[in-house]
């Protein structure tokens, strides 16, 4: 056999042609492409040589891997797992220790210039990198070495993209996002963790089309990070109506009111949570009655308490494409809340007088 | 990990945790409630356990009262994570080691390789699919996982409606079918009723022909004599876990030492740093600091060495089931002590017990009643949050002054199990367990026994030093 394609790998894994075509059409849907792209994806999968993916771990908590292997669509996950084979992944691969290190070197040498490097976590620069030693070396060395020969570099999650929790003030280890230590362009897939379908979607896009999807000015794929969680939030109508939750599990919470006053950062967070959602489209944080806390945004740890309501207008406009629009949105949101605060008290008083039967009937609305 | 090897076995082991992020330093000065967002990120595998410990610590500090629904909702979210952790360990990490080429010549290898080899064996996709469906429970109750935000002092932000309770019941029921068909190939009631080694052997014999994965493992355990591997000091601790509707814990709190049960004195816990890259001296978590000192003489890890009244203890499912008094585990440990085999059997037995409890808790939820009681944060307070992650005892200690976090200390399960030596030279549980492990015997070639011992603790490196 001359070249091994993704399709060959899938068939070897026992995935039927029917399942394969289903995967292609699901992929097109996830990526927001028209059905006309389905044969194109199928053609690419059947004819393009398999691109290996090397997956590295620096300072992190493994939540990105956890998210990835739990992709809501089992088919997508199985296909992706077999497709990329995770040639090197500290967490999921079969080998361990020095054997694992050898696998990594072998993969780099064999696929020089033709592999995707996916990085979960980041390198700490303090103390010569000794806060994160893997395979006997500081992670920063290993990262630079692997990136040198990579075709594309993906930053999985907030750790690799922005630094995340360990880079929160005072950042004792000097944890540093990977784009600051590498010369390669970096495709950022932020989130803590990113949504599984976003991760599989980004990889599939790259494998299918041979190039990364269109990125925003911060390096995030526009197809997933082009809109704010607020834009498509199912509680948005309550925001517009000035109906807010005032404490966890209060009557407003049970009626699905807006969580803005509980600290929700949905209005300034660019992500696909409100559309793709989590755990196989079951839910997302706002659905659990807690606000969004903005985990796909740069520096979200150091913008004041997570339970403060957004008041800082400068917090808006962090996304490149929100330069102009963001300013306007901020003004609207700020004004809206001032007006709504008074209204809420009235609404709440009225709601309190409602009879219990109605409340029970409404309690299921959270699942909208 | 550094091993001294002599005469075909490990003479001494030094366990190293090469990763440090600094949570306890970062939390200083923050608004206490923000710990609920920081804490889960200690670990993406057991983030709910970290959330629960943080919510308990803050709840203790604020004197929060959790309504029964809130208790049950937290139990369900937490139990789901712990249960799935046990099986993830079994299917994705522990069993694939037996499919490795080192064992190709063994008569059982073909069957184990077909079922358990990493990612490609028949078990992995089956399990991952069942796991994904089961985790919809996390979606319903906790919004997202890992790193839910729904767990708060005083309960859960998510109220469950009658319709959703039905949905939860279906999810738990579907996973029970996976356990009964694939993991055990037997009804769960039959598994939890096993009351000793003889009963287990008898049950295993009856499984021949159409074995479940537990029976497969037991046969493997017998062939490889896994009960001879990985014995530590046989001192076990459990903080106790989950609460029934009447407030009683599902798994009891206590210490198992010298073959008997003791009560747990939480004030007897202190962290030794004599061999850690940390500044300072031995201190209880209430007052301890976590300040890195990479130049510390004699240190070899970022992990501290927690001790209970100066003694190293082992934590995990085996400790929980022993302390709780399950007759099967008590009998197995009486016969061969804590080892690779008993650790894995305890994990699977506990999975069956947890699933049965989850069905009970789902039925006990009362839609319409509160899931959360608000508690006013106090400007000056102290709190302790003790719980059990899948891997063992987890504690958070918080002190709040002037409305800010003045001190926050986290002692995670793997910190106990993977702790380095202390000032008295006493090794941690894994260091003890590795001593005497064969490195290249006909039964366990090429250091693979070392790997089984390490994996039997289901370690979590990111939790360890955090």
UniProtKB/TrEMBL annotation, chain A:
Q: Which Gene Ontology terms describe the biological processes this protein takes part in?
A: anaerobic respiration
Q: Any idea where this protein resides?
A: Cell membrane
Q: Which Pfam families match?
A: NiFe_hyd_SSU_C, Oxidored_q6
Positions annotated to bind [3Fe-4S] cluster: 273, 292, 295
Major place of localization? membrane
Query: E.C. number, please?
Result: 1.12.99.6
Q: Which residues form the Cytochrome-c3 hydrogenase C-terminal domain?
A: 225-306
InterPro entries linked:
Cytochrome-c3_hydrogenase_C, NADH_UbQ_OxRdtase-like_20kDa, NiFe-Hase_small_C_sf, NiFe_Hase_small_N_sf, NiFe_hydrogenase_ssu, TAT_signal, TAT_signal_bac_arc
Amino acids binding [4Fe-4S] cluster 1: 61, 64, 159, 192
- What top-level branch of life does the organism fall under? Bacteria
Kindly list the positions annotated as binding [4Fe-4S] cluster 2.
230, 233, 258, 264
Q: Could you say which cofactors this protein requires?
A: [4Fe-4S] cluster; [3Fe-4S] cluster
Keywords of the record? 3Fe-4S, 4Fe-4S, Cell membrane, Iron, Iron-sulfur, Membrane, Metal-binding, Oxidoreductase, Signal
Task: State the name under which the record lists this protein.
Answer: hydrogenase (acceptor)
Source organism per UniProt: Acidihalobacter aeolianus
């Amino acid at each position: 056999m001359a070249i091994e394609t993704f399709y060959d790998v899938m068939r070897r894994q026992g995935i039927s042609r029917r399942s394969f075509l289903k995967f292609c059409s699901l992929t097109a849907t996830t990526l927001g492409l028209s059905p006309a792209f389905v044969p194109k994806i199928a053609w690419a999968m059947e004819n393009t040589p398999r691109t290996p993916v090397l997956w590295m771990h620096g300072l992190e908590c493994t939540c990105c891997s956890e998210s990835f292997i739990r992709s809501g669509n089992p088919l997508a996950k199985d296909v992706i797992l077999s497709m990329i084979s995770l040639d090197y992944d500290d967490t999921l691969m079969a080998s361990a220790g020095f054997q694992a290190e050898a696998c990594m070197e072998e993969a780099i040498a064999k696929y020089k210039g033709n592999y995707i490097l996916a990085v979960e976590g980041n390198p700490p620069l303090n103390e010569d990198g000794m806060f994160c030693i893997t395979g006997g070396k500081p992670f920063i060395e290993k990262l630079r070495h692997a990136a040198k020969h990579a075709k594309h570099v993906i930053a999985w999650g907030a750790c690799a993209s922005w630094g995340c929790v360990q880079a929160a003030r005072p950042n004792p280890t000097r944890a540093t996002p990977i784009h600051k230590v590498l010369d390669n362009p970096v495709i950022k897939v932020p989130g803590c963790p990113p949504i599984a379908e976003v991760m599989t979607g980004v990889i599939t896009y790259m494998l299918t089309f041979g190039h990364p999807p269109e990125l925003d000015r911060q390096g995030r794929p526009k197809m997933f990070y082009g809109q704010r969680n607020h834009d498509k939030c199912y509680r948005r109508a309550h925001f517009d109506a000035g109906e807010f939750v005032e404490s966890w599990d209060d009557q407003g919470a049970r009626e699905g009111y807006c969580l803005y006053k509980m600290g929700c950062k949905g209005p300034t967070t660019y992500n696909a949570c409100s559309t793709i959602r989590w755990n196989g489209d079951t839910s997302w944080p706002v659905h659990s009655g807690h606000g969004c806390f903005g985990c796909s945004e740069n520096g979200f740890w150091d913008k004041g308490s997570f339970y403060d309501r957004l008041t800082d207008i400068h917090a808006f406009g962090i996304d490149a494409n929100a330069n102009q629009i963001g300013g306007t949105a901020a003004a609207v949101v700020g004004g809206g809340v001032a007006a709504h605060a008074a209204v809420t008290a009235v609404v709440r008083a009225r709601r309190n007088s409602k009879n219990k039967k109605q409340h029970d009937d409404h309690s299921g609305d959270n699942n909208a | 990990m550094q091993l001294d090897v002599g005469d075909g076995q490990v003479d001494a082991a030094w366990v190293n945790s090469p990763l440090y992020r600094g949570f306890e330093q970062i939390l200083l000065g923050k608004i206490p409630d923000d710990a609920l967002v920081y804490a889960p990120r200690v670990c993406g595998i057991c983030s709910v356990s970290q959330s629960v410990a943080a919510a308990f610590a803050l709840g203790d500090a604020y004197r929060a009262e959790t309504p029964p629904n809130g208790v049950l909702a937290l139990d369900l979210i937490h139990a789901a994570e712990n249960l799935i952790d046990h099986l993830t360990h079994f299917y994705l990490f522990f069993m694939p080691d037996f499919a490795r080429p080192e064992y190709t010549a063994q008569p059982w290898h073909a069957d184990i390789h077909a079922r358990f080899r990493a990612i490609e064996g028949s078990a992995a996709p089956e399990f991952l699919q069942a796991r994904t469906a089961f985790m919809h429970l996390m979606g319903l109750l906790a919004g997202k996982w890992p790193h839910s935000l729904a767990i708060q002092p005083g309960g859960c932000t998510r109220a469950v409606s009658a319709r959703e309770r039905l949905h939860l019941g279906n999810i738990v029921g579907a996973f029970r079918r996976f356990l009964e068909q694939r993991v055990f190939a037997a009804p769960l009631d039959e598994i939890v009723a096993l009351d000793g080694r003889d009963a287990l052997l008898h049950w295993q014999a009856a499984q021949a022909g159409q074995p479940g994965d537990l029976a497969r493992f037991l046969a493997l355990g017998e062939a490889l004599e896994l009960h001879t591997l990985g014995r530590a000091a046989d001192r076990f601790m459990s903080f106790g876990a989950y609460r029934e509707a009447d407030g009683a814990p599902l798994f009891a709190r206590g210490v198992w030492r010298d073959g008997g049960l003791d009560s747990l004195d939480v004030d007897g816990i202190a962290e030794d740093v004599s061999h850690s890259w940390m500044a300072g001296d031995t201190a209880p978590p209430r007052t301890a600091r976590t300040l890195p000192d990479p130049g510390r003489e004699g240190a070899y890890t970022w992990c501290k060495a927690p001790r209970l009244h100066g003694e190293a203890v082992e934590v995990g499912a085996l400790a929980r089931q022993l302390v709780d008094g399950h007759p099967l585990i008590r009998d197995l440990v009486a016969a061969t002590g804590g080892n690779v085999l008993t650790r894995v059997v305890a994990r699977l037995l506990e999975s069956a017990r947890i699933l049965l409890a989850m069905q009970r808790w789902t039925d006990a939820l009362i839609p319409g009643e509160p899931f959360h009681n608000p508690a006013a944060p106090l400007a000056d307070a102290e709190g302790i949050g003790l719980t059990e992650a899948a891997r063992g005892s987890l504690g958070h200690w918080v002190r709040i002054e002037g409305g800010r976090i003045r001190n926050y200390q986290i002692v995670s399960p793997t910190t106990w199990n993977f702790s380095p030596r202390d000032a008295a030279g006493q090794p941690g549980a894994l260091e003890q367990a590795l001593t005497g492990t064969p490195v290249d015997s006909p039964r366990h070639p090429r250091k693979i026994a070392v790997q089984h011992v390490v994996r039997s603790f289901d370690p979590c490196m990111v939790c360890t030093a955090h």
